[in-house]
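SDR family oxidoreductase
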Amino acid sequence: MSDARTILITGGANGIGRATVMQFHGLGWKVVALDTDAEALAELRDRLPRETALFLTCDVGREGEVVKAFERVTEWLDGSGIDCLVNNSGIADPYAGPLGELELADWQAWIDASLTAAFLVTRAALPLLQKSGAASVANISSTRAVMSEPETFAYAAAKGGLDALTHSLAVSLGPDIRVNAIRPGWIETGPWQKSGARTHPKHRDKDRDQHPAGRIGKPEDIAEAVAYLHEAGFVTGQHLNIDGGMTVKMIYEH
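Structure:
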């Protein structure tokens, strides 16, 4: 049984998940990442030692795959628990197209990838979280849970449901397990994609000027919020906007 703390991250192969994996491993944590992108997971597997990092291909919106993955996770932990769970999986593109053309199967795919997945993974992780004695869960929601662009119905609904699931879990699982949501705003994930998909976009002045913080968000900003919420022992059931202040700034069309 290791003294190192363990974090499990869904959607851990690219973007926010990948940055969180690398940040926590750099802090001395053992890391577990679940994702459907086997190629991106293989890249991470080559970078980090097998003793302290486990990467599993898993569609966390499917119950059978989650059950099977957690059998492997439990075996790998060898009696240890999970100290921090990050429910980060989801479909990144929020745009569904016109409501009249949105198929039920497509709607369900957005819901399952984020909201259903958070339920399935948290339920499966519960015995391991309880072993920690002071565990935390961070659900990666979105500012779109509380504000919308046109034609983002399913994405917004999934993230709004994740916000509600957050406070329900917090009051049900406390005091031993604290549960919070992080609402990212505009986060540039291009530099944190697998090598074949990596980009380094150049943002315009007006993109940066939308943010009182003066810049676009980085995946590292979300990883730092996960770390803060894990250590903040009197914070649970909350929804933390990490958006550079964009959602509190009034923007008029000129």
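The beta strands are 6-10, 30-35, 53-57, 84-87, 135-140, 177-184, 239-242.
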